[in-house]
Amino acid sequence: MKKIFKTLTKFTHDYEIKDEIILRDHLAMERTKLANERTLLSYIRTSLYLILGGIAFLGMDNLVEIRNLGYFSFVLSILILIVGIARFRQLKKHLKSMYKPF
Asked: Is residue 51 part of a domain?
């Protein structure tokens, strides 16, 4: 159980001095991973804001013409979330192919 918890909470791979990769490259990969996660969170945040905007537009009973904007906001939110997840997975896969941990 301890081993599973340790692997889940570990954010980086162990660095070993080898000829293939130097410390600078290892740290650059870690910065890129963190930037990728931060970008995914930005996509999620944007998607949530669009959902909130869509709810607000749909909640306006006086302006019936604006309801379509609320539905458009929901659709756009889902598309942005899908694009964000796809880009996150694509870069994560690319990073794994460039650098395989020891």
From this structure: yes
Place of tokens 């905007």: 53
Global pTM reads 0.71
Give the model's pLDDT for residue 81: 95
User: Is the Cα torsion angle 93, 47, 9, 3 positive or negative in sign?
Assistant: negative
Q: Is residue 7 part of a domain?
A: no
Token pair of 28 as six digits = 């650059």
Of 79, 77, 88, 74, the C-alpha closest to 35 is 88
For residue 86, what are its two tokens?
A: 């796809």
Q: Please check the confidence at residue 15 and state whether its pLDDT lies above 50.
A: no
Number of domains within the chain: 1
User: What range does the domain containing 62 cover?
Assistant: 21-98
